[in-house]
Amino acid sequence: MKKEIKRNAWARFCRKFSANNMFRDINISFNDKTRNNVELSGEYPLMGLTLEKKGRFIDGIILYAGQAAPEKLTQPVFSIKEPEKVVIEKNKDGIDCRLQVQTKNGGFTTIELNGDSGNNRYQDFVREVAYSMYERRGFSHGNDMNDWLEAERKVKKAGQMFA
User: Fold this and answer.
1) What confidence score (pLDDT) does residue 78 get?
2) Average pLDDT score, the chain
3) 12: domain range?
């Protein structure tokens, strides 16, 4: 089932979409006005979407992904300039599976959502961050619980940016 999101609801949609799909794996494909196709996929989870504004006007939609570096858990990975139309597609169970954004110049971006956004993916991301902290300490043992708790705190704080 596809549903177009009205422009005046984009800000609310971005917050809801981010909350519902945080930590899900994503694949991005972009077709520009000359129909050149670029595909981006990575091992980093979706953190959220935000609107980029110039004054009162929406100039873009920014997609953020998570990365295991404890000092910078969220990173903007893709910016869609001059969005014109936003369409969300849900699977038969009512779960978001694809987001499409058409731009004013005729290009479009498709974000495929893979897996679930449940507790398992959250735990995997916390584990990656905790391991990164362990690695940065030179693999010195004895701080695993502190690393885990600090990683959880940082991941929760990063997720609040999109709430």
Assistant:
1) 87
2) 89
3) 1-163
Angstrom distance (rounded) from CA 4 to CA 162: 21
- Contacts of residue 101, defined as CB under 8 A and 6 or more positions apart, other chains included, come to 61, 80, 83, 85, 86, 87, 108, 109, 111
- Sequential DSSP letters for 104-154: TTS-EEEEEEES--SHHHHHHHHHHHHHHHHHHTTS-SS-HHHHHHHHHHH
Q: What angle in degrees, to the nearest 10, is found between the helix axes of 144-160 and 119-136?
A: 120
As beta bridge partners, residue 111 has 28, 99
Q: Mean pLDDT throughout 48-65?
A: 93
C-alpha pair distances (Å), 21 with each of 72, 85, 112, 145? 20, 20, 11, 28
Task: Confirm if 82 and 107 have CB atoms less than 8 A apart.
Answer: no
pTM, two decimals, is 0.85
- Number of domains present in the structure of the chain: 1
For residue 129 the two structure tokens come to: 């961050």
Q: What angle do CA 56, 58, 61 make, to 5 degrees?
A: 145
Rounded CA gap, 94 and 116, in Å? 12
Q: How many whole angstroms separate alpha carbon 85 and alpha carbon 159?
A: 26
- Alpha carbon 139 to its chain centroid, in Å, reads 30
